[in-house]
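Weekly structure sync, notes
Attendees: PL (lead), two postdocs, one rotation student
Agenda item 3: pending single-chain targets
PL asked that the sequence for the first pending target be pasted directly into the notes so everyone works from the same version. It is reproduced below exactly as submitted, 179 residues in total.
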Amino acid sequence: MWRERDGISKRWQLIYKAPMDTALKYASSYLTVSTGIIGVSALYYAAFVFDKADMYNPVVIGDNVVIANSPVECLVYLGSFIALHIAIKVLLSKYVIRMYQDGDEYLAVFRGNFFNSIKTHKFHLKDFKKLSPTFVVSWGDARFDLGNKHGIILENYFKTPEHFHYLLNKKSSEKAEDD
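Predicted structure, written out during the meeting:
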């Protein structure tokens, strides 16, 4: 079922499926649309409505709805809104929703920017590394290096615990066998 949705061939086996796929789909779509609407509205206001003579007057919508005390304050609100949305989108773009395996090759599926869009990233077993936790984010232990892309993977949602431990410990077991 998931392979068909993701457009993945039958040689790949699903080994990881993260929770909240539907919620992420709607959240990602909302963030894209709302940021786009606010950004285009701000550009329209700046290009066609804003007048330098009104620099110190409140920003009013309609006859009497004050949304900011000055255009600069309004710009700060809009900038903060867009910056927060971009930060959330960056976080969501690193969340792996499904992972497939074919031998030592892996395919991670990430949520795209629009409703049913996805992005795939192929990596090899040797490229998988646990990243060092940071003090900035509380989910630092769920951050992994997937070759040339970082991903957030929740270890409890692998098909079996062996799949996760194989990814983490494959290199160390190979080194122990070689010695």
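Discussion points:
- The two ends are 43 Å apart (CA to CA).
- Helices lie at 2-6, 21-49, 71-93, 161-178.
Action: rotation student to compare against the earlier draft before next sync.
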